[in-house]
């Protein structure tokens, strides 16, 4: 290519004296490498079919000026900036579209080429960029508005309970809870407790493991909390027992008052239970020990007798409210009433909590405190004098104070005897047929004039 430059220069100098340098010769002198770059690249097959490649090369040297000029124009057109739509399509992933001022500036750089482009502002309107806009740096995408931190919680009610709330516990689990309460009551003066020997005899053949044991003092009252686990039942049992609960029950239930639950607004509960379990720090100790247990996929069962049953019921509700991912149960014996309608609605709104109260037919403590402002929570498993077992769904029996005051001395003494935990254990052992369904839930509907309805 470089060797051809002197030849072209000599030809132009000899003829230039007569008629001057032509436009084609000027292009060859100015752009010596341009013509070779415009030569078409032949395919291997066409080169094989060519009879005389040297003749083709000589014919290429004889290209006329108009043909070379058209090739130069095509090259200049290819060097011109792309159309606004094509350029934006190619830079769609690289950044935002370039402003119209930049397009006009690029279009004016073409020079002698006749394929210059019009200003894109006349083609499609583009919003004017900000003063700090830079074509080389893409702008940051617009930030989406942040949503508020919403917490959704599943709740239930007496009219629409969860399936877990309606599952009646089996007799084996309920009897084990009663025996644990009996064990703590009979060994309340033993220090330390002989768990290895006594627990094997009280569980009736069910192998359990002692996990934790706590002793908490509130004034003259001592509260014992035993935490055991059963691999067979896949459950963790939390048993609460109160020393001197008979005197505490007599004092707190006869002149009952209510206090607000901490952190629950207007929900009221029995004042003696709130002060003993929550305000004294017992709840924090129990929850801390349960959180440290290494028993995954185990259900947690709170149990207790008398005032210990009140503490277990209240703590089970508060623990189920904190841990919605766990299944919590409360299986208590001889439990008094611990709140009103607001506490009842709060307990029944927890779909992961089921509360079952085991009551003897003549136990009068379960009817205290008397009055329409006090209600029981959960379901009731009632054991009659003939060892008949019945389950009542969300029972709501209000005992007036006048009926409590009209009890005979025989009823009072019998009620005290059946309130003891030993009586509950004996009655559970005598039960032959355990309740599998709730009583008084299958109605006959509205019957007029003794009519009978048959399905077609």
Structure description:
This protein has 19 helices and ten strands. With 456 residues, the protein is of the alpha/beta class. It has two domains: 4-44 and 59-117, no CATH class; 163-430, Rossmann fold (3-Layer(aba) Sandwich). The strands form two sheets. Strands 1-2-3-6-7-8-9-10 form an eight-stranded mixed sheet, with helices on both faces.
Task: Give me some keywords for this one.
PLA, 456 residues, 2 domains, alpha/beta, elongated, Fungal lipase-type domain-containing protein, Fungal_lipase-type, two-stranded antiparallel ribbon, AB_hydrolase_fold
Spatial strand arrangement across the major sheet:
1-2-3-6-7-8-9-10
Task: Tally the beta strands.
Answer: 10
Count of separate structural domains:
2
Using only C-alpha atoms, the radius of gyration works out to 47 Å
* Percent of sequence in beta strands: 5-15%
CATH C-level class of the largest domain is Alpha Beta
Would you give the CATH topology of the largest domain?
Rossmann fold
Q: Tell me the major beta sheet.
A: 8 strands, mixed
Shape: elongated
Average pLDDT number: 73
- How much helix is in the residues? 25-40%
Mind telling me which CATH architecture of the largest domain this is? 3-Layer(aba) Sandwich
Report the CATH superfamily of the largest domain: Alpha/Beta hydrolase fold, catalytic domain
Number of helices: 19
Tell me the structural class.
alpha/beta
Regions with little confidence, pLDDT below 50 for 5+ residues: 55-59, 84-127, 129-140
Order of helices and strands: HHHHHHHHHHHEEEHEEHHEHEHEEEHHH
Distance between the termini: 106 Å
